[in-house]
Design brief:
eleven-stranded antiparallel β-sheet, globular
């Protein structure tokens, strides 16, 4: 079936609800992407592998998730990503585009923009440069279950925030060499508690001291099968939002205290990677509508920060909060954060356990 046949059969005899309009856009994009894929295969006569991956655990206290983009447009361009903290959401009397916005309407707008806009793509010989600026909250207590650095917000006697950076260079020809650069942590941006400064300096002395450059042909080798980020990997994931949620539930291992929090976290991390095809990213945004306790936390132009809260009853923490900042004009997720637990008077609730701010550009060279 070609693209025009897909368009003709979309929603025949059905009312034009918002979901159906977005679904029609998704199916249209699938047809376009399929046609592009067939044309690329005809021209090159060899497969082009689109690879993504995750890398975690650089040194004892350093963590990273590799972010990539999925090409859907032949012309390279540079996307500017706002990194400023969002302003408070406007009140009903303030007017503006989000006066009557809901979490669902924000996600639906972002999903539609994702389908319409596609994704950033580097031309052959160029690289998609994806930079993540991270923060990590380290919680200290004199006697921890595993280490001194595994306290909770309630039990911590000292804490500090460590910024970090890692950058992935994705070649325009994705069968070529991918480069990921992990920068060492060199500063502490905040400390809490009387011993915070001294303990933070001790902790920082034991972290990564040298830049790490990882190189791998054809993508990021994460050991999965099919490899995360490949066409085969994304082909197995449903595009229907409800089926997508069910698919994520099949990934749950053992007794999970709260499946929704785990699913929301996985979806947000995947959106942060910007590796999935546009139609799948749109489905992920729509799936987030089903997450409980969603709310609008702030607005900065077309970028909206959403929060989702989950109640936990574990020995480690009593709550789990995920946030994401999404541009409703492009569907691009520029930031996210995670806060585990509440209580205690040491660390303000406004300081998350981890956060990521993402920016993307096209460059001619990689390290």
């Amino acid at each position: 079936m070609d693209v025009f046949e897909r368009v003709r059969d979309i929603g025949a005899g059905d009312g034009l609800t918002e979901d159906r309009i977005i679904g029609a856009r998704i199916r249209l994009l699938q047809g376009i992407e399929g046609s592009r894929g067939a044309e690329r295969a005809r021209l090159t006569k060899k497969p082009v592998f689109l690879i993504a991956g995750a890398v975690a655990g650089v040194a004892a206290a350093t963590a990273a998730v590799v972010v990539v983009g999925q090409p859907t447009s032949p012309a390279p361009r540079v996307e500017a990503v706002p990194t400023a903290s969002p302003t408070p959401a406007p009140s009903p009397s303030a007017g503006g585009p989000f006066e009557r916005a809901t979490v669902a309407s924000v996600l639906e707008s972002a999903a539609g923009a994702t389908v319409a806009g596609g994704a950033l793509e580097a031309a052959p010989g160029q690289y998609l440069r994806v930079e993540h600026q991270t923060t990590q909250l380290v919680l200290y207590q004199p006697t921890g279950q595993y280490t001194q650095w595994d306290a909770t917000r309630e039990s911590a006697t000292a804490a500090w925030v460590a910024p970090g950076t890692y950058v992935t260079y994705i070649p325009g020809d994705r069968s070529q060499e991918w480069v990921t650069v992990f920068e060492p942590k060199t500063t502490i941006s905040q400390t809490f508690g009387a011993e915070g400064d001294a303990l933070a300096a001790e902790w920082l002395a034991g972290t990564l001291k040298e830049q790490i450059v990882d190189r791998h042909a054809g993508g990021i080798d994460d050991g999965s099968d099919p490899q995360m980020g490949s066409d085969a990997y994304y082909a197995q994931i449903p595009r229907d939002p409800q089926q997508l949620l069910d698919w994520y539930r099949t990934l749950m291992i053992g007794d999970v205290l709260d499946e929704d929090s785990q699913i929301a976290s996985m979806i947000i991390q995947e959106l942060e990677r910007n590796a999935a095809p546009a139609d799948l990213r749109a489905a992920m945004l729509l799936a987030l509508r089903e997450m409980p306790n969603g709310r609008i936390l702030g607005v900065d132009g077309s970028s909206v920060t959403l929060g989702f809260s989950f109640a936990w009853t574990s020995d480690l923490f009593d709550s789990w909060t995920e946030t994401l900042t999404v541009d409703t004009s492009s569907g691009f997720v520029s930031a996210s954060s995670r806060t585990l637990g509440s209580g205690g008077s040491l660390v303000p609730e406004s300081v998350p356990n981890s956060s990521v701010v993402t920016s993307i550009s096209i460059v001619d060279d990689a390290p």
